[in-house]
Amino acid sequence: MGDAIMRTRERLEDGVPRPVTETTGKGPLRRLRAPRRPRLWFEILLIALSYWTYSLVRNAVPEQRTAALRNADWIWRVEQQLGIAVEETVNHAVNSVTWLVVGMNYYYATLHFVVTLGVLVWLYRSHPGRYAATRLVLFATTGVALVGYYLYPLAPPRLMNGGHFIDTVMVHETWGSMASGDLKNMSNQYAAMPSMHIGWSVWCGLTIFALASVPWVRVLGLVYPALTLVVIVATANHFWLDAVGGVACLAFGFGMAFVLYGRLPYALPRMVPVAARRRVWLPGRA
Prior knowledge:
By secondary structure, the protein is an all-alpha fold. The chain has helices spanning 2-14, 28-33, 40-60, 65-82, 87-95, 98-126, 128-151, 168-172, 196-211, 215-234, 240-261, and strands at residues 18-20, 280-282.
């Protein structure tokens, strides 16, 4: 009798339409991992709002000049003891070639933003399935950097007490840094650790190297962060250890993306399936 009731119940359930989805798994985490096509208006708004917030928070961090100078002296002493204090030598060597140092000043001031935005646009257009996860890496990297600015104020080499570093922007009267000349009051000068010039440039470089199809473009992806490292040191805006901090923040960003998406951003599908997450009702068996 019980078997007959069970078979009757199964037949009734078979007659009910079932939802068929292209994704498997349950819960909000699975929904987060599903690739979604980015919306242009939302991305423009998000990027603008995020950069405004980043600038506001970064510049709102107390400058803590005394602590920042003390930390700079400590880093410089440690580098000298380890025999890796090369920043002053690079700074003076590049400063002796006017056209080179002026070019580096403008590189420092502009490419940081231009290349990063260019890579975001390229991802949006050519790799929409990977865009959200890769953008998350960039945002998480920048977010954790703000914590570093608050917890570890650091003066750049050009502002060290008794240092022999050359502020290349001031000397050559070029517009090359938000922390020099007439623009210095618009930016926190003691937020050098970690270096987001390195964090963002390595993000750009890895993204280009991993996803570009043209060999020479992939090579440029590797050259860009290496050249950026030379620039931040040569212009006396950062110790090279600030670059290590930037890479550490980027590693945190990739970790966040891996946790939320279950894989590295570059391993996600390039395109978003047209019917992704669409529910289709199919008739049950008779």
